[in-house]
Amino acid sequence: MNASATIPGVNVSVELRRRVAQQRATQRDSEASNTAPHDSHVRLFQQERNESAEDPQVKLRRSASFLPSSKEIGMLLWGCVLLFLLIVLVAQCGFKLYFSPTDMDKVESGYMKHLHQHWSLMGDQFIASVSKDPSFSRYKNTRIYFRAIKRSIPVPGVTPVQYVSKISLPEVNSNNEWLGDGIWDGSGDGSSTNLERGSSRLTRHVDSIRCVGEDGPVQFHVVAFLTSGVRFTSSYILNGEPESHVVKKHIKCMQAVLPLMCEGDKWEIVCPPEAAFGKNGERDVPPGGTTIWRISVEDVGSSKPRSRAEAEALLSSAVLTANGSPAMTRKHMFEKARKYLASSTSVSM
């Protein structure tokens, strides 16, 4: 018999079993594919439920694990600091390369020169205006000028308090009358010499007036201005008390004019820079600045004060007059102030 020959009954049975096996395999694959999504959803739901039931501290630690650590923050801050220092260093190096020390000196020198020119010009114009004002007197052959000015004094025996304006020389009464050439009986009717010292009023012989000595300290109130009108010092504002100065230690302008003054005097003094703070200035006084001082002498102390006659002799020698004109006296200062002070516009402060 041939080995390749087939038996019909047997072949049919084998073929039938093979087909049944294929159908079952196909059915299992279909069931597996249908149940896979369901299983994944079940697993996801189970994971979410487990996460919701997780300990809050564990969740916090897990979320914190995504934040930078303190070490990382520190490194970041140090990096920012180093970057800032690098920028500053580069800027400084660039500035030094562009501006050498010599250039900086030139810039500063140029600025100071500009200030000096500006304030010198302003001062020159101011002094030129003052020199044409007849209420001022010139100190020798300098650019220092001075004059007596007015002050307000209370009217005695009047309520409420009223004030009158008088020329601030102790030989002048509250009616702006000159009373300094004789001995007065003190009757109070305009024939006495009333001296204002602070708020008190004294009646005495004019020869008893005390004037600034050469060496002794002098106490005075002061208000000082720049030519722009800006005030740079005031004893009334600082502590309300008069300042005490030794004449020889003050600026040259004050060394010249203060010895001409007496207790009760209130003068306005114009000081050019060469007799004050010079081309460099000082504190609030700019380079080359002309200054205006209002000095009210309160007390000359007890160290060798000058008499009125001695101060007047100094005044006569300090003020140059035209040929044939009488020497300057305190009475002449009063007459100039009474005649011209009201219309004076040279010092508008």
What does this structure look like?
- The strands form 4 sheets. Strands 1, 2, 8, 9, 10, 11 and 12 form a 7-stranded antiparallel sheet that branches. This protein has a two-stranded antiparallel ribbon with strand order 3-4.
- The chain is elongated.
- The protein has 8 helices and 13 strands.
- The chain is α+β, with helices and mostly antiparallel strands.
- It has helices spanning 8-52, 56-64, 70-98, 101-131, 235-238, 252-257, 308-318, 330-340, and strands at 137-138, 145-148, 150-154, 163-167, 194-197, 200-203, 210-211, 217-226, 231-234, 243-246, 266-271, 291-299, 306-307.
- The model is unreliable at 1-6 and 183-202 (pLDDT under 50).
Main sheet overview: 7 strands, antiparallel
Termini Cα gap: 151 Å
Q: Give the CATH class of the largest domain.
A: Alpha Beta
- Give the CATH architecture of the largest domain: Roll
Total number of domains = 2
Q: Please tell me how large the radius of gyration is.
A: 51 Å
Give the helices and strands as they follow along the chain: HHHHEEEEEEEEEHEHEEEHH
Count, helices: 8
- In terms of DSSP E residues, the strand content is 15-25%
Shape: elongated
How does the helix and strand content classify structurally?
alpha+beta
| pLDDT < 50 stretches | 1-6, 183-202
User: What is the CATH fold-level name of the largest domain?
Assistant: Chitinase A, domain 3
GO molecular function: peptidyl-prolyl cis-trans isomerase activity
Transmembrane segments: 75-99
Domain PPIase FKBP-type: 215-301
InterPro entries: PPIase_dom_sf, PPIase_FKBP_dom
